[in-house]
Amino acid sequence: MSMQRRARILALLASDGGSQLGTKRLCQVAASATRLTGAGIMLVSDGGPRGSLCTTDDVSSLIEQLQYTLGEGPCIDAYREDRAVVEPDLAAPEVYRWPAFSAPAVESGVRAVFGFPIRVGAVRLGALNLYRDRPGPLTAGQHADSLVTAMIVAEAILALQADAELGQIAQTLEVDSDFHYVVHQASGMVAVQLAISVEEALIRLRAYAFSSERTLADVARAVVERLLRFDRSSGPGRSS
Amino acid sequence: MATREARLARTFVEVADTLVADFDVVDLHTLVADRCVEIFAVDAAGVMVVAPGGDLRVTASSNEAARALELLELQSREGPCFDCCQNGRPMINLDLATLQGRWPRFAPTAIDHGFSTAHALPMRLRDEVIGALNLFQTAGRLEQQDVDGAQALADIATIAILHHRATIQTQLLNEQLDQALTSRIVIEQAKGMLAGLGSLTMDEAFNRLRAYARRTNRRLSDVARDLTDGTLTNADVDLPSPLERH
After folding, report:
1. Of the candidates A30, A104, B10, B159, which lies 20 to 30 Å from A139 by C-alpha distance?
2. A181-238 CATH choice from 1.10.10, 1.25.40, 1.20.120, 3.40.50
3. A232 CB-contact burial (10 Å; exposed 0-12 / middle 13-18 / buried 19+)
């Protein structure tokens, strides 16, 4: 059964008229193979989310942005708990798991959300983020397809990275990615402005984004564009 | 007393259970060697593998005699397991007394250890020989059904090696990706630090970081890390780069 699923999903991946396998295609196939609205591939490490390799649409991007900003959500749980995390009705869940994530996600049209660990054996790379614009559980077939897709995604990521030069991220992985470089630039800026470590600076930026209901990327961009400055004298996050 | 087939089947289950994500090749090969002695009419067993560089290595032995003989094979470059690793063919029911001419060091030593018969079964993946399972008997010959069963265990030892190789490769790639991402992040943080107090753009900050790395003949990511952990200060690094002066 699982081999048939695998063969069918690989056939979907290959059916793209000969264009090179890339992360964008992986995401699109993840959504179509599971018959869901959209998909995203999030890389996660033990320190937290690293960034997104690709997303199929704006809503998927927002799901990843929210999780990166807030440090909670289905992909982060799927990675940490190393298991599938399903929320068939995000607007009216049986258990409220993600108090900060849920409201803005529902508002942007996410009604059901699913996270599947992306792993090869004991090596964990991140989580596959799948969503649907209406509530409802996954069928057993969709669930199995999601697991197999996540496995194929993991193998594909490593196969693509195998072509990279040592010390570099493979270009094919980077092309549609969002590793939040602007957030790390902003962390560096805030660190020297407040004379704190870059790690603390990132926490300050996250707190500011959360309290002002903006994404971390938005706040970071404002810092880098010098529209927002953190200063010891004027307190955190005063606009200049 | 369980039948031979039942014990063989139980061994397969045992091995499948061991072949999880984080297993040890030596442990699994030791299990294969031990079970050979328990299930088949052999008195000692050992596993030898071809290391990536082409050298042979002993991974498991059911007892000290088998271990000594396998090491002797490596040392003297002769013996059933050594030959099997070269030609990839099964070598069954080798009468050691008649093979002293072929293996002048191995055969007499094996006889001294009390063995009369030796066998070697290849561990093969298509055309590649990746090792051999060595079996020793103090008397008698091996029946074909024992040979078949032992070959099945040798195949399992092969799968363990392939599985292990794939796992190592996976871990390596994941670590490379993770490290590449981490150095990239640290460089972005360092750019931000250089740009944070003054009026440098991110590109200018990057140029100064790179110029400092070149002046001091160090890697960009190392300089960036020193800046973010306080080993270096902005004042150390933040000099207009030659690029900007042009």
Report:
1. A104
2. 1.10.10
3. exposed
pLDDT at B52: 76
Q: Is 70 exceeded by the pLDDT of residue B242? A: no
Nearest residue of A to residue B201, measured between CA atoms: A224
Query: Which candidate in B24, B165, B188 is best for mutational testing of the A interface (most A CBs within 10 A)?
Result: B188
Residues in B 213-232 with any Cβ partner in A closer than 8 A: 221, 228
CA B169/CA A159 separation, integer angstroms: 10
Q: Do A123 and B177 touch (CB under 8 A)?
A: no
Of B167, B177, B195, the CB nearest to A121: B167
- Give per-residue pLDDT as tens, B40-71: 989 999 999 988 778 899 999 999 999 999 99
The answer to whether A115 touches A109, Cβ cutoff 8 Å, is no
CATH 3.30.450.40 residue ranges for chain A: 3-174
* Nearest-10 Cα torsion for B148, B149, B154, B155: 80
Nearest to A121 among B21, B176, B179 (CB): B21
Residues of chain A with CATH 1.10.10: 181-238
Closest CB from A161, A189, A192 relative to B176:
A161
Cβ contacts of A125 on chain B, cutoff 8 Å: 174, 177
- Are residues B148 and B47 in contact, defined by beta-carbon separation less than 8 angstroms? no
More confident residue, B103 or A233: B103
What is the value of pTM for the model shown? 0.76
User: Tokens for B146?
Assistant: 């024992």
Is the CB of residue A231 less than 8 Å away from at least one CB of chain B?
no
pLDDT for A52 equals 96
Quick one: CATH architecture of A3-174?
Answer: 2-Layer Sandwich (3.30)
What is the spatial distance between Cα B219 and Cα B229, in angstroms, rounded to a whole number? 16
- Which two tokens mark B140? 């008698």
pLDDT digits (tens, 9 = 90+) for A83-122: 999 999 999 998 889 999 999 999 999 999 999 999 988 8
- What residues of chain B, 161 to 200, have a C-beta less than 8 Å from chain A? 166-167, 170-171, 173-174, 176-181, 183-186, 188-197
pLDDT on residue A194: 94
| Chain B residues with CB-CB distance to A189 below 8 A | 192-193, 195-196
Higher pLDDT, A35 or B16: A35
pLDDT at B10: 84
ipTM of the complex: 0.87
Helix (H, G, I), strand (E, B) or coil at A1: coil
CA gap B136, B81 in Å, rounded: 11
Q: How confident is the model at residue A135 (pLDDT cuts 50, 70, 90)?
A: very high
